[in-house]
Amino acid sequence: MIGYDMYGSGSEKVLVFPGWGLDHSAFVSMYAALDTQTFNFAFMDYRGCGLSKHQEASYSIEEIGRDAIALVDHLRWQNFHLIGHSMGGMVLQWVAATVPSRIKSAVAVTPVPACGALQMPQERRQFLLKAGNSIEGLTAFFMGGTANRHNIAWAKSIAEKSFSITDHEAFAKYTVAWADTNFAESPVESARGRPRWHYRGNDEADDPEMVS
């Protein structure tokens, strides 16, 4: 079973996906502000990251999506909400397109689109492929990914955490996964209902090349 962290005891079930190079701990500082009587959250860790760091992986968006569906089945959640940040927003779209009749709502925060980033400039792609090789590269990624709104100490702290909880080959392989995956025109399961979609992302850095 994929690694995950549970928080809350409410009847409304929420599956949460982190961004590239991150795990459930990226959300821990928010736990105290969550409505735990209404909601029950499952914060999922991808293969190669966090609680799933040592699990064998093919590092694909579909693999993450299938792990997510296996997780909610394990938890016996028939219907649930989705939240996903950046690369996690792409996973959210895959899950919602695959089992739409089970999704109550979906909140995608600066998501990578379902079409990926096939037109990404080669220079940018090479930077992302190498960013996970060092704390310095990850620091530059997190600074650029937030449009330099935060100071270098903040970016370095996130980079150090990411470097420690992520299998190092996962950085480049997940970059290829979110950049090269395109399921925008794939057929989806027919269903009477469709999830409610909420998108957040209009800042300078909110594009799939900067935030993943």
Number of helices: 6
Which stretches of 5+ consecutive residues score pLDDT under 50?
189-193, 202-211
How would a crystallographer describe the biggest sheet? 6 strands, mixed
What structural class do you assign from the helix and strand content? alpha/beta
Radius of gyration: 16 Å
Number of domains: 1
Strand line-up across the major sheet: 1-3-2-4-5-6
Query: Beta-strand percentage?
Result: 15-25%
* Overall outline: globular
Order of SSEs, N→C?
Answer: EEEHEHEHHHHE
| Quaternary assembly | single chain
* CATH homologous superfamily (4th level) name: Alpha/Beta hydrolase fold, catalytic domain
Using the coordinates above, name the CATH class: Alpha Beta
Any key phrases for this structure?
single chain; 212 residues; alpha/beta; Rossmann fold; 6 helices; 6 strands; disordered C terminus
